[in-house]
Amino acid sequence: MTATTPADLWPEVRPEAARRLLLAAVESFARRGYHATTTRDIATAAGMSPAALYVHYPSKAALLSEISRTGHQRTLALVEGAAAEATDPVRRMRRLVEDFTAWHARAHTVGRIVQYELRALPPEDFAVVAELRRRTEETVRALIAEGVAAGVFEVDDVRTTARAVLSLGIDVARWYNERTAEPPEELGRRYADLVLRMLGTRPVA
Amino acid sequence: MTATTPADLWPEVRPEAARRLLLAAVESFARRGYHATTTRDIATAAGMSPAALYVHYPSKAALLSEISRTGHQRTLALVEGAAAEATDPVRRMRRLVEDFTAWHARAHTVGRIVQYELRALPPEDFAVVAELRRRTEETVRALIAEGVAAGVFEVDDVRTTARAVLSLGIDVARWYNERTAEPPEELGRRYADLVLRMLGTRPVA
After folding, report:
1. pLDDT tens across A153-188, in order?
2. Omega of the bond leading into A15 within 30 degrees of 0 (cis)
3. Does residue A191 contact residue A98 with C-beta atoms inside 8 Å?
4. Closest residue of chain A to B193, computed from CA coordinates
5. Minimum-distance CB partner of B36 among A33, A175, A191
6. Residues A154, A158, A161, A163: what is their CA dihedral angle, to the nearest 10 degrees?
7. What pLDDT does A203 receive?
8. Is B174 on the interface with A (CB under 8 A)?
9. Domains (ranges, CATH) in chain B?
10. Which residue blocks in B57-181 are alpha helix, DSSP H?
């Protein structure tokens, strides 16, 4: 079960039937895996006929693409928003890790699909997602480099460190369980502490 | 394609046909996902008949269980081996992270299956794997706690930090690509540097 509602994840999707299909697809992919899920499974989970599904999405792949694209857009928006705040690099990195980690905890069911079914995307949709991922990584690298230049971070290898920062947050979707783990916001704060240590953070001058 | 050979991963498995079936299962699960793979797919990939497969493994689930159990045993052995070395906690943690990270880079195809198909395991096999995972996490927690007691680590939350250490290494299996990333051993050294920072390492007295 996802801990997020379709309204949280796809507030802009209309009509309601399309939104219901996205949620049904998420639950079906999470239960059976993408390859073993049929459009009939998804339609049934949404309380609709296969024909009614095709009114909104031409294929199972179109549903996966929509889930993956919107998930990547959402996390890129979090990362760019944190990186653009009018504060110092340490506070911006703290916000970035808090928000990115909490998102992957709250939306862990969607996060797993978004991360693990990349290779199932049609090539043109994969290209869009790859560009969103590239921008996300580039934003984190630029923020680390800015902190190094300002003398508040001390980092040996910006590329590997940026990948580690994102990897920690992404992997939350794999292991997070709302019954046994700390709440998403608390986990975000703890992970931000760990990441700022990884970055060799010094007091802001 | 896996970057490890069946001989590396299952040196103890005899006869050769059984080992070939394990490799074929890894490649088939990686390509199609576990649920969409049939025993016929696996037999064909191994150059065998379905009947010949059943001589060695009673089911697709039995192959997944063998892959998952041996993968978890291998990583637990690495972790316990590093934690038991006759050196200080800092050096032992460095070795642990280097070996754990390099394993997930080298065996990333197997690592993905081991991590992402846990819920497809039959309950009794899942219980075995869950126990191996519990011991792995407990070993890392104990080593961190030992370093804190010795005054060489400074950690706010041992449980969350131990999970982050393992999470960083496990997620390598998701993103690692031998064509674009640093070699496994180099990545292991860089990750060990990052983890020792996360642990607030101080010079060993």
Report:
1. 999 999 999 999 999 999 999 999 989 899 999 999
2. yes
3. yes
4. A198
5. A33
6. 160
7. 65
8. yes
9. 60-198 (1.10.357.10)
10. 60-83, 89-106, 108-116, 123-149, 158-175
* ipTM, 2 dp: 0.90
B134-166 residue pLDDT tens:
999 999 999 999 999 999 999 999 999 999 999
3-state secondary structure of B53: helix
CB pairs under 8 A between A and B: 74
Nearest to A113 by CA among A181, A32, A191: A32
Range B202-205 contact pairs with CB under 8 angstroms and sequence separation of 24 or more: B202/B151, B202/B152, B202/B153, B202/B154, B203/B152, B204/B88, B204/B90, B204/B91, B204/B152, B205/B151, B205/B152
- Three-state secondary structure along A107-127? CHHHHHHHHHCHHHCCHHHHH
Q: What is the mean pLDDT of chain A?
A: 92
CB atoms inside a 10 Å sphere around CB B185:
13
Per-residue pLDDT band at A12 (split at 50, 70, 90) = confident
What integer is the mean pLDDT of A50-54? 95
> Does any CB of chain B come closer than 8 Å to the CB of residue A164?
yes
Q: Identify the closest residue of chain B to A190 by CA–CA distance.
A: B160
Chain A interface includes B4 (CB < 8 A): no
Task: Name residues whose C-beta falls within 8 Å of residue B194's C-beta, 6 or more positions apart in sequence.
Answer: A161, A164, A198, B168
Does residue B4 have a pLDDT over 90? no
